[in-house]
Amino acid sequence: MDDRISPQELYELLPQGRVLVLDMRTRVEFHAAGHISQARFVGLARAMRKPGLLEVGDAELAVLICLSGHRSRWPLERLRAAHPGCRFVDLEGGMLAWWAEGLPSVRR
């Protein structure tokens, strides 16, 4: 199973909808450094502790994001087990790769 998606692939999928973008970074990283506008802050600790409580709705694909693409890999198996109807992948290279591609992000 391919469990990574490139920044460009994610960028092209976002307008099509039904893609859930879950940011695993800290709240400070999410707000201060910037994030993908469609991203929802989840945080790694929450995803690891309570994967079943994470709402995925009717999303067909959930993309986990961190700064470099390492932390976001940790909860993949737990989330897959808790939500078998949704495909979970992580963003290859994380936000560093997203920014390196010159893709848009927001700060709030």
Give me the side-by-side strand order of the main sheet.
1-5-4-2-3
Number of strands: 5
Task: Let me know the CATH homologous superfamily.
Answer: Rhodanese-like domain
What radius of gyration results from the CA coordinates?
A: 12 Å
What's the end-to-end separation, in Å? 35 Å
**CATH C-level:** Alpha Beta
- The average pLDDT is 91
Please name the CATH topology.
Oxidized Rhodanese, domain 1
Q: Roughly how much helix do the residues carry, as a percent range?
A: 25-40%
Q: Structurally, how many domains make up the residues?
A: 1
Structural class: alpha/beta
Structure description:
The chain has 108 residues and is an alpha/beta fold. The chain is built from five helices and five strands. The chain has helices spanning 7-13, 27-33, 44-49, 76-82, 94-100, and strands at 4-5, 19-23, 39-41, 61-65, 87-91. It has a five-stranded parallel β-sheet. The longest helix is centred in the first third of the chain and has 7 residues, at 7-13. The chain is globular and about 35 Å long. The relative contact order is 0.26.
Short note summarizing the structure:
The chain is an alpha/beta fold and 108 residues long. 31% of the residues lie in helices and 19% in strands.
